[in-house]
Design brief:
alpha+beta; 256 residues; 60s Ribosomal Protein L30, Chain: A; Hypothetical Cytosolic Protein, Chain: A; 4-stranded mixed beta sheet; 3-stranded antiparallel beta sheet; 2 domains
Length: 256
Amino acid sequence: MRTPPNERLTPDIAEDAEARSTSGPGKSCANRKEPERRCILTGDHAARASLMRLAISPDGDVLPDPGAKAPGRGAWIGVSRTQLEEALAKGHLKGALARAFKGAPLRIPDQLPQMIEDALTRSFRDRLGLEMRAGHLLLGSDRIAEQARAGRVALLMHASDASEDGRKKLDQAWRVGREAEGSGERGTVLPLDRAALSVALGRDNVVHLGVSGQGGGRMAAQRVASSLVRLQKFIGTETREESDGCAQDAHADTTN
């Protein structure tokens, strides 16, 4: 990624440092202001973690930067793939990017929407892999069910091709452990099938997985939920119920 002319090297990092300085090391996480960014297409402000950052490559291509690590000025979007494709077709994206990058020469790849979806999917798979290596994930239906009934599962997820019967059994165990019987709460059906999950986690036939609600698993649930909701929002599979549920579960597990 290159830095457009007359721009500071890392404005996003500078803004984050300012946000951290206002919170102070002695204040609780609940009192810290989460950095926000403005979507260049809608004008709406949202938490940085829920948006996708775009940056310019050395060749002038606009590319997804899901980790928000590329140097230079970034442009943030918080729309779905369908909305992005419409903005691209109508020229709205080009105009918004020109303003965001202050007229710097840039080129928008025709396949940008697919590139963003691939980047978000890869980011989510990588997050699962990291939490797996850290010991925060639970695999195997019997183990998940046992831990779920004991109230030790913060987040329950199913592969897209998991059987309905298998999902229902674990969903019921999860509700029991959460003292939410009769609520209809269910685990999240992921936009990944068992083959993709198995590759991401280096295990065979991963159909269901849970995030532990014990110890470091509490923060792990928040990280996984954040990455998942961002992917769901872009590809258009996120429901309001799932978005609210993930956010509430992650918050509860970090405050209990």
